[in-house]
Amino acid sequence: MLEIKGISKTFNVGTVNEKQALNHLSLTLNDGDFCTIIGGNGAGKSTMLNAIAGVWPVDEGQILIDGQDVTKLPEHKRAKFLGRVFQDPMNGTAASMGIEENLALALRRGSRRTLRPGIRSQERKLYRDLLSKLGLGLETRLTSKVGLLSGGQRQALTLLMATLERPKLLLLDEHTAALDPKTARKVLDLTQEFVEEQNLTALMVTHNMKDAIAMGNRLIMMHEGRIIYDVSGEEKKKLTVDDLLKKFSEVSGEEFANDRMMLAN
C-alpha cells in the first residue's frame, strides 16, 4: 500500500542552518499494516509523514501509494489517498463551520463538486450514527461550530473525518500529544477501533513508547532521517520500553535523549 524508495530531504541548503531531515529512507507497508513510529527529536518522523502527504517535494527518491507514483503530485492531489490527524486539535477541521458541515467536506474529499443541495436528511442520519459511536454526545450538536468543541472532541471528530471515506493510508502525527491522559486514551481507543474495523493501513508517530509497543502490528525507530530498527509480529508484542532504549543505544551508538518520551513511560 505504501512504498518509500530512498527519499532524502535537506532543509536550508547552503546555509548555517542546513539540516538533512531524511537520509535515503526506504519503507514498505502492506495493506492493513498499522505501524507505530518512535525516535528522538529531529529523527525525521514528522518529516517523513509530510513527505508522504506532499507538503513539500523530496530531493530524491520515490513515493508510491497503492502502486501509484505520487512523488511529483502536489499536496491537494494526494488528499484523495490520505487521511490525516495532526498533533494540534485546531488543525484538520474548519473552526467556523458546523460539525455536519465539516463531515460533509470530509465525505466529499477527492470527489467532483456539484450544485446539488448540501446535506440531505439521509446523510445527516449517517453523521448522527457515526458521531454516536464516539460516545461524546456530538450526535445532538450537528450544527454546533467546531471551534466551540474541546480539544478531545475536536480530535475525535478529526479522526472520524479522516476515516469517513476509507483512505488508502492514514497518517497520525502525535495526534494525542496535546491532550490530557484520559482524553488521549479515549482517542487512542477510537483510533484502534477505526483501524481494525476498516482494516486501514496506518502510520502513527507517537512520543509514548508504551503506546508504540501496544498498538499496531509493526514498530519502527528512526534516527537522523533513517530507520534504525524495524520489528513486527510476535517479536514486537514481547518488547518492553527497556528493550527499545537498549536497541536505540546499540544501533545509534547514543543514549536516548528525549525527555518527553522518557516522562511518558
Describe it.
This protein has a domain of 129 residues: Rossmann fold. Helices cover 36% and strands 23% of the residues. Helix 3 packs parallel to helix 5 and helix 5 runs parallel beside helix 6. The two termini are 32 Å apart. The relative contact order is 0.17. The mean pLDDT is 90.
Can you give me a brief rundown of this structure?
This protein is an alpha/beta fold and 265 residues long.
Q: What's the SSE blueprint?
A:
Elements: E1 2-11, E2 19-29, E3 34-39, H1 45-53, E4 60-65, E5 68-69, H2 75-78, E6 82-85, H3 99-107, H4 121-134, H5 151-164, E7 169-173, H6 181-198, E8 202-205, H7 209-214, E9 218-223, E10 226-232, H8 233-237, H9 241-252, H10 259-263
Parallel strand pairs: 3-8, 3-9, 6-7, 7-8
Antiparallel strand pairs: 1-2, 1-4, 4-5, 9-10
